[in-house]
Amino acid sequence: MSTAARRSRPTPPPAPERRGIGAGIARWARRIVVGVLLAAIAVVAGTAVRVWQVARIDDWSHADAIVVLGAAQYSGTPSSVFQARLDQAVRLYENGVSDTVVTVGGKQEGDLYTEAAAGKNYLMSRGVPGDAIVAVEEGTDTLLSVEAVSREMHERGLSSAVLVSDPWHSLRTRTMARDAGLDAWTAPTRTGPAVFTRESQMHGIARETGALVWYQVTHGSADFPYTAAQ
């Protein structure tokens, strides 16, 4: 056979067995990717449902302390979000849920007051005795605040807490508090900007779903600039 004839001879196709192995690997790779995506969607959807379910819980059982999660304050004046939480704490205190109220939260650079101090002053203006209020002036996010409260309560021999925050924040605060060693349940505020509109409710559920998934994966701080309540 001539050299030209050998060069023009077509290359034989791959063996059927090799093609079958390659196609099988590709199919399994696609299945794995689809499976991971479906699992991720299921986790996010399941978490969103739990955020919504726990937001509806309003447990006024007696506790060692009523814990008010901090929010923004302006020169000692609580923001509307924070005020709604504090007003709920007053109602719980007046109904005998606990004789101790804990406010928590540090301050941002340039602030004159901590969130905890602003919260304590507001509660006193509403008639809660100063000696019934413990101001934990630590924490720049939910996780740090909850851990600071847990340390303070354990030092005082207190172990159970009813947590007051926005409804959509309830599951994350409860999860963190229990992880920190507290026997915790929730009685969120039903007033304030967090519950005013359907849009604010959906935004709260979406925000808290993402923040809680992040916490469950990393066990680190789950508050980002877009999750901070004002």
Automatic annotation (TrEMBL):
CDD domains registered for this protein in UniProt: YdcF-like
Keyword field: Membrane, Transmembrane, Transmembrane helix
Region (Disordered): 1-20
Gene3D superfamilies: HUPs
Membrane-spanning parts: 32-52
Limits of the DUF218 domain: 64-198
Protein name, entry field: YdcF family protein
Species per Swiss-Prot/TrEMBL record: Rhodococcus zopfii
